[in-house]
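A protein record in our archive is deliberately plain, so that people and models can read it alike. The tokens are whole numbers drawn from a learned vocabulary of local backbone shapes. For reference, a complete record is included directly beneath this paragraph.
>
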Amino acid sequence: MTTLARGTDTLTRDALTVLQPGFTGTSAPDWLLRRLGEGLASVGLFGRNIASPEQLAALTAQLRAERDDLLVAIDEEGGDVTRLEVRTGSSFPGNHALGAVDDVHLTRDVAAELGRRLAACGVNLNWAPSADINSNPANPVIGVRSFGADAALTARHTAAYVEGLQSAGVAACTKHFPGHGDTAVDSHHAVPRIDADLETLHARELAPFRAAIAAGTRAVMSAHILVPALDPECPATLSRRILTGLLREELGYDGLIVTDGIEMQAIAAAYGIERGSVLAIAAGADAICVGGGLADDDTVLRLRDALVDAVRAGELPEERLADAAARVRELARWTEAGSRAAGDIGLIAARRALTLTRSGAYTPVTSAPYVAALTPAANIAVGDETPWGLAAELARLVPGTETGNWSAPGAAEGVLSAAGDRRIVAVVRDEHRHPWMSSTLDTLLAARPDTIVVEMGVPQSPPRGALHIATHGAARVCGRAAAEVIAGV
């Protein structure tokens, strides 16, 4: 591996420019500041980097003191996937809730306010929105991150989100091309496969991306998925047929193409991150997202040198790398005047997203209930740092509210014992994907028919309970909206 000094050749600078690495800590490490001086043009932020809006603004100012034309990216979808509010839960409902309301003006306003908050903290690229169509209810990683299962609905809300976010001067990165919705595998762990035919893909998966392109999305993120109808050999991130042939040439997209996290097992396990990065740039990607746990100088240098060596060996055309770097720099220079939306637009949207089903007259809870959170394992995109549920919000309205987390078969007996004679509020997340949740609800409702059920995932299972509330997402603000209904305020 070659060691290269600050201010070295154009090839080396271009190789650094196409990387979007993460890092650890709430201030910039010395190695990152050095690489910015050598050509690195992007950084990625995660929950580990954020303690408060004020701290985040100071961090981005520290980074821009080294390089003012810097892309500061974040994975802030709102809803379940939040980095700004990773320890408290999001102030904005996620895509599924917005799709449930189906008001594109509301979606645009929510995205604009989210963009305004990001811009105020110095963030100018958001790895959002998810344009995936949740056509497979068993999908373990998309779910409520999708606007819905309908192509036309997802397309119009994807476009509205892009327009709203970019109106605040924050570039949208529409993901996960060509569509991660019809999968039953999480690409963090393995390579998902979509076996839909070409006609279905064009009518369904690609519709939201066409809408995003028409709306002017500044970036598109590729998916680590195998789609044999498009390319039987390479996952989309590494496929020239998909990134260049389909996205660039057929769909006419001319903005930045960013890979999903290159360290995800769908790429890392089969190709290794160095080879995967070279193949992705060769296929037409312009930027390599390096997040997850690979957040150190060694990783950046390994990827930089892999790209340089591939060019020198004739495996990666130098003009392709130069073109990719130019697209990164072009987006880094992009700015646009922002707009302002109502400060509580997130709560307004969350309230409108609720779907209520009553079995007879419902009496609001006025004495302290017991909240039983039936908790599934968190998917990697969401992470396990961000709280979910509604117990804290309900406790503000009904003092004395108690809660317990349950995550195994046979939980019903424990819930009934812990609840005593208090009203039970059972909170689930994607009941249809977890048989133990369904059996737990069966037992609870048989013993306590007045139990309230709150579904904070995709509401695929039939509603049941004295009151069933579908929030279409587990953001903090969704929990607050549900708590208001339960307490009758």
